[in-house]
Amino acid sequence: MTNNKKVLTWLDEMIALTSPDKVVWIDGSEEQLEALRAEAVASGEMIKLNQEKLPGCYYHRTAPNDVARVEDRTFICTETKEEAGPNNNWMAPSEMYAKLNALYKDSMKGRTMYVIPYSMGPIGSSFSKIGIELTDSIYVVLNMAIMTRIGEKVLECLGEDGDFTKCLHAKKDVNPDERYIVHFPQDNTIMSVNSAYGGNVLLGKKCFALRIASYLGKKEGWMAEHMLILGLENPQGEVKYIAAAFPSACGKTNLAMLIPPKYLKEKGYKVWCVGDDIAWLRIGADGRLYAVNPEAGFFGVAPGTSEKTNPNALAATMKNTIFTNVAITDENTVWWEGLSKPAPAHLIEWKGGEWTSDSSEKAAHPNSRFTAPAINCPCISSEFENPQGVPLSAIVFGGRRAKTAPLVYQARDWKHGVYIGATMASETTAAAAGAVGVVRRDPMAMKPFVGYNMADYFGHWLEMGEKMDADKAPKIFHVNWFRLDEEGNFMWPGFGDNMRVLNWIIDRCEGKADAVETAIGYVPTTIDTTDLDISEDVLKELLNVDKEVWKEDLAGQKEFFAQFGDKLPQGIKDEMAILEANLNK
Ligand code: OXD
Ligand code: MN
After folding, report:
1. pTM of the model
2. Which residue, judged by its Cα, is nearest atom 1 of ligand 1?
């Protein structure tokens, strides 16, 4: 299917290493994918679900030891340990290649190797990047066909001499002790072995679109971020774009597909989803920052998704979707905790056993997933395929904080915004009434995903800001939907009502909303609470900045930054000093 010598040479080497019985090129045709689905059903790798209720939908179960990303077995193998930095596992490339080559040796004997050419981003866009994944799993092929653009047209675009990211996946026997997810940024190579779980094996996603892409972005002057992208349409039909980064499990997919509260909907406000997980950002010819979603589907967490929490995500899963580790109903449809109440009386749970509603075990694994085509989403943006991306008005950081962060605040400028992103944190949720959970620092929600030294990553953010005029750069904000009152209850309703905060953000970008300057940045004088049962006092508390609590947080920030030693950029040190001075005023 290609004359690209780099592809063919590498493929020959990988065939020699893994010794597959057969090599199949994935051309991207529906006929080929349909044949693979049939083969996976025949072998038991997948189950065909109720085609009347869920047309084109399939089910897959992973091994119980293989249900999530494995950060402790994820490596960044750069020439020096310093290039990978203190937040990544590291091993010298030569040592890691030796270890991996032994594991891959003859690993595909008796199996078929599938060659998947794929594009992250619309095929042919100057934003996009090409990868080729070799895998022995049909499940991976079928998921990649949803999550990325695949097939012959990608190879055409690659041409005879184009460069690509080399991705090798072998399922082997999913032995967790020999599981490795390894990135060699300097060789543009990803190797994954002994897993069959999405985040570890759909190598276009976290491995390429974040870890390798963040490294390429640093080298080439762009950014790969763990961000949703949404368009907010006002009653005049104008759409403004926001990208937002939250740590995993803070509701990124829900925000990306938000449905406005009734009265705003009636006025004509709408939210359009461009992406729910990853954004690639570049400065456009007009000096503004543009965002593209490099993915073509949603690999979303199923539990908690319902008609009430996220009807758009649910609608997206109604056809041509692969479900992984959810429960199966007697009707051969799917169920997970939070989908409906009460739970069905009888289910087949995620491990394949019988389940009844009096069981104390969960029916779906808490990290069970749907892989759904983005085009299924009722609120998918008309700009989703735009090869130039969408211009960002705002970047929003967020976390789960019981007391520290107000509902929303705005950075004074880009540099301060970078500091806000770099000090992002979330608290563990099991906090007892009033008690504060354990704080986990997760800069820009990228701690598990930066493919190089995080201190240099902060430096790259600062440099990107220097390349944009202040009036063109997106304004930077921080939100916290999770503030608790003294009894441990959420003070803000969240979900669709977060639209009220997004409206304030856009108004600020346009110079239309008031704010007061505090020690940490600009805080709203008020937020629209029409139709909400929120008193003035509660709103005041939601927007309150408690200097004593912030002094404690600053101590935690300093501790986190200390690990970077001399590498910490001056811009971060400057902002830390400003915050300290403001808190002591
Ligand atoms: C994800 C994650 O799966 O961030 O998107 O963990
Ligand atoms: Mn994610």
Report:
1. 0.97
2. 248
